[in-house]
Amino acid sequence: MRAHRWFGRCANCGACMLPGLALWLPSGYSFGAALLLLAALVSVPVWCRRRAPRAACWLAAAFCAMAALWLLDVGVAWGWGSLDRPAKYLLVLPCIFYLMAFAPRASWLWMGVALGSIGSGLFGFFQTQVLDLPRANGFTNAIQYGNLSMLLALMSGLVLGVQWPRWLPWQRLLLVSAVLLGGAGSLLSQSRGGWLALALLLPVGAWLLVRTTGQRWVYGGLCALVLVAAALTQLPGVKERVGIARQEVQTYQESGESSSSVGQRLAHWRLAWEMGRDRPFIGWGRAGYMQEKARRVAAGLAPPSVLDYGHAHNEFLDLFVKRGLFGVLVLMGFYGVPLALFWPTAARIRDAAGNMDRQSLSLCLAGVLLPLSYIGFGLTQVFLAHNSGNVFYLFMCPLLLAALHRRQVRRTGVIA
Q1: What pTM was estimated for this model as a whole?
Q2: For this UniProt entry, which residues form the secretion signal (predicted)?
């Protein structure tokens, strides 16, 4: 029993550390992940004898399919480094079943989300105001930093709004600070792709809140947020970035100039679409993509700027050109399975008497927000090409799912 308590404490600590340290320490997301993996391996004799819920098996299947897709990139030309990404997907598998056996408390997870959001904003201010960097980037790049900071801020706001009555004044203040500072971290990064993703996340989140709670004032809150967002676009740094993006689009349309940030993305998208249509079912492969891209540039069929990156600056187009429709379907499952597992159905958020469990609703909505945000971020960035994007998603999904499973078992006593 003492060992079991230790495993449970590790799950709680890992749930807090993973989002809590993600952005303001070097590889901060790795500390919680390493703790969870260590606890999962040590506790194998315990959790392997327990029946895993179906949800855990579905999530593991989605991760395995994605790991198999990344394994297709492994080759002599890329060295041992090509095993890095599929290894992460396989190493998270024992953590899924460990967390289902020793599920963390949701309160520890929310604490980590709030601390991570606050830390990202404060560190962003430190980098831009003290170190005088032009953009906040944490210990990754500005795009990853800004997008994950925004995601943590959105999760903090969601938890604050859904569970407002239960929070003490100091907890409300903490979560409000998390929303403001996490949003500030995104603004200080000047990552425009994250702002674009808000157009997807805010309406869906508002609709789900009204659908599940019946509180139509949420739509009024959404309108207020839109007005705030419009006001923020007038800030000097934000206004400049938006203006630059508009100008770069216009320049690309008029002259095909692709050396700018937006122009390069548009050139990558066009080339990836054209190459993908030539091999729509199996794609070109990672090596084939690079070789064919170089050939087309040499032949004058694509601008030289597309050689600067090994991806297409769009998650779906990148897999379409490299792995064809097969790769796109695997990616859809990678995002779609968690989306289905967290969708706030009555069985997940209400008890037999029809009473709503707001903790379960928060976990469901945060779980829906996770894949939706990655889809939005992936429109202008290959988010899964970066360690931070992979590790955060791979471990936040099972953490949220395990915490939700814990609530369901306590409410119904049934393992789904």
Answers
A1: 0.92
A2: none
